[in-house]
Amino acid sequence: GASVGLEEGPPACPRAGFSVVHQTLTGGPGIGRDTRSSCHEARQHLLELQSRNHGYNRRRQFYTDLLVRASMYRRRSQSSRSGASPRSTIGEFRSALLPVLLVASIWCFIFWTSLWFSLYDSLSDDVDDNRLFNRRGKGVLAKKLEQFLAGSPSPETVDVRRWEESTIEDSVLRRMVDPDSSSKLQQFLKQSSGGYPNLIIEAFLETALETDGTERLASRASNNPQDLVRTAYPYNRESASSNFDKQGACSRVGAQWTLPTSHPPALDKIFDRNVLRKENMYDHRHALAGISIEKNNSGFCPVDADPFLPWLHDVFPSGDGSFIELVISNKRRCNTDPNKFVSDLINLEPQIALMQPVPVKRGGSGRYVLATSIDDADKDGRQTRFICRFHSSILEGTTLRNIELGETLSTYSYNPEHANYLKRGSKPILTSLEQGHDEQIWNAVWNARCPVPQFVEGDGLTLQAFIASGKTVLHGVPSVYLDLVPVRTPARRTKEGFGIPGVKSTFDPDLVWGDDHYLPPVQASGRLVNIPVCLPPTVERPVIDVGDFELTRPSERKDKTHFLVGCVWAAHSFSTRGQTTISDQSTSSRLLEFLTYHTSIAGFDHVYVYDNSLSNRTLQHVTDLFPRDVVTRIPWPHRVCNNNRPMHSNPGERSSQYAAESSCRARYGPNTLWMASLDVGIKLSFR
Q1: Own/partner pairs for 499-507, CB < 8 Å, 24+ apart?
Q2: Percent of the chain, pLDDT > 90?
Q3: CA 517 to each of CA 2, 218, 260, 371: distance values in angstroms, whole numbers, following the listed order
Q4: E-state strands within 571-671
Q5: Residue 458 pLDDT > 70, yes or no?
Q6: Most CB atoms within 10 A, among 215, 299, 408, 528?
Q7: Are the CB atoms for 308 and 354 separated by under 8 Å?
Q8: pLDDT at residue 301 above 90?
Q9: CA distances (Å), origin 85, targets 76, 173, 381
Q10: What is the spatial distance between Cα 659 and Cα 654, in angstroms, rounded to a whole number?
Q11: Residue 445 phi, psi dihedral angles, 5° rounding
Q12: Alpha carbon distance 399, 384 (integer Å)
């Protein structure tokens, strides 16, 4: 059967055995038939089969050729539309794609290389600055890497000075807040510091700035720590009956009541009165600072002896623990009559310099250098004035060990120099004595901030989280302290300031301090030390579990805790302006009426009473009549430095009141929508 389709035709008829062939081809038996006739019939049949099969093969070949031609026609039509053959089109596409891939590869390489170099630069150690990773360096690196890859904002405005290996050990934050360790430390301090359970605020006084014979500021790089005068400022010393009656610096609302701002009224005979003053405070500056009152150099206010020290009226951490807010008054505005107080006005010019930002950069060996432009300064040092050093103490046996928690550069809540520039008709912040006293009341008080170091231990605990949680204060005693080191430069006498964007300044830093003016080391610089870091003013805090500790952080809700709050500054007794002998003691009854009206009728959510009573008779008996979640009393012992009438030749300066209003706004403003600063005799009504 396989031979049927052969082209050469059927074979010739054989003489015998054809029956088998016939049977095979025709399907019938060949026995009993004629062999030759049967062969011819079979051959004829084969020819018919061959002809039939040949036609099929031809038809199959025809359709096959037709399909091939149609396929070729389709390819040719596509090629004609594209203008090139398929192979040439693919080649051109590959030729065009290769440069694009090459450029993209180079761009990706440059991008990722620069990205990782920036990451390495942000995490690397500067050997010249002596910034070394601590023993938990791997944990810090992992934490920063996680934040970097997650797109978290980098703390570029905060200089995180690494802890030195010689002073840091594992879980130092846990040891700071451990109740047993804190109790032992408090007992040790009580026995060694006159009954105080915490460190006492101290000052290292530095002499006035000098020039090198020209207008350029003389170098202070070779200052010696032994040249500084050390003074201490214990608080509440007149009311304690024994050493162990001393309260912790954070036992009341805030630490403002421990700050050394003025002498008590009982010493007015020594330091003169704060109304109708006749003597310059400059004449009493050393005694007021405590240099000659007692053998242990215990004083009341160091600012007149070292006017570069800030006249602090309040210090408190922010709700999230990221910075420490400083409320600072301008002491030069206390007595401004140029005919009587020339010495004070000249001596206190550095108080104006503190309100003027300066650019700072870091040099070698942990030193700071004054920059000659904003662009030349470090990112966190473009507008600064203080070196902020955070530290704590740990008791090891009978030895008190100081732990440095890090250094940052201060920032301004707003630029006082810029604000003064924007005031229509304003004068420079510092004017010459020939122009008379300074009437610019907006320069009476200002705010600065010290960023808290972004230190993270290997187990995820952070210094900021501990401060925000309140765990750093135990039984009213703080475990974290702040040192303020002012950057000392002469005050500028230009209204346009320096470094204000879009404002051309006539101040020339190259002429005043040059491009290589190194600041002295912190140990050789005048400074305030041991400022207590107390509880943040935040009330509402959700609990977050971190290991064995329960930390709390401020609520992240965008809405405010309160709708309307009030701030009032008052005292148990007071004298009206210009009076020296008549004392008004009606504040208690008027405050009771004030609080009742505003909390029950006017709809105030909360009222904060800044109690300026300077004796044992306070306003607490009135505020205790109201719930604590409605009325809060803040001890505010800072005296008004000048109580003269406004039209006096030496007009009064309500320093205590202005600072109280600024404190209330900075403390409680973030948690309220509306705030009103009122006097006790004023009632706020709504229509």
Answers
A1: 499/357, 499/359, 499/373, 499/374, 499/382, 499/383, 500/415, 500/417, 500/418, 500/421, 503/421
A2: 41
A3: 110, 9, 31, 8
A4: 606-611, 631-635
A5: no
A6: 408
A7: yes
A8: yes
A9: 8, 75, 66
A10: 9
A11: -145, 145
A12: 36
Is the pLDDT confidence value at 405 over 80? yes
Distance of CA 139 to the CA centre of its chain: 21
Q: Are 155 and 143 in contact (CB under 8 A)?
A: no
Tokens of 178: 């451990």
210 and 537 in contact (C-beta within 8 Å)?
no
Cα torsion 344, 347, 353, 359 to 10°: value is -170
* Tokens 């070292």, residue located: 306
- pLDDT per position as a tens digit, 143-200: 444 444 444 333 333 333 333 333 344 567 888 888 888 889 999 998 887 789 999 9
- Tens of pLDDT, residue by residue over 465-474, are 989 989 899 8
Tokens in use for 367? 């030193």
**CB pairs under 8 A, 24+ apart, for 359-365?**
359/383, 359/384, 359/499, 359/509, 360/384, 360/409, 360/487, 360/519, 362/129, 362/159, 363/128, 363/518, 364/128, 364/129, 365/128, 365/129, 365/130
Residue 357 has pLDDT above 80, yes or no: yes
Q: Report residue 443 as tokens.
A: 């320069």
Amino acid symbol at 210: E
Give the closest residue to 310 by CA, choosing from 410, 229, 418.
410
What is the rounded distance in angstroms from the CA atom of residue 473 to the CA atom of residue 537? Answer: 13
User: For 576-602, how does the pLDDT look when each residue is reduced to its tens digit (9 = 90+)?
Assistant: 877 666 778 889 999 999 999 999 999
| Residues with Cβ within 8 Å of residue 65, at least 6 apart in sequence | none
pTM for this structure? Answer: 0.73
Buried b (16+ CB within 10 A) or exposed e, 663-680: bbbbbbeebbeebebbeb
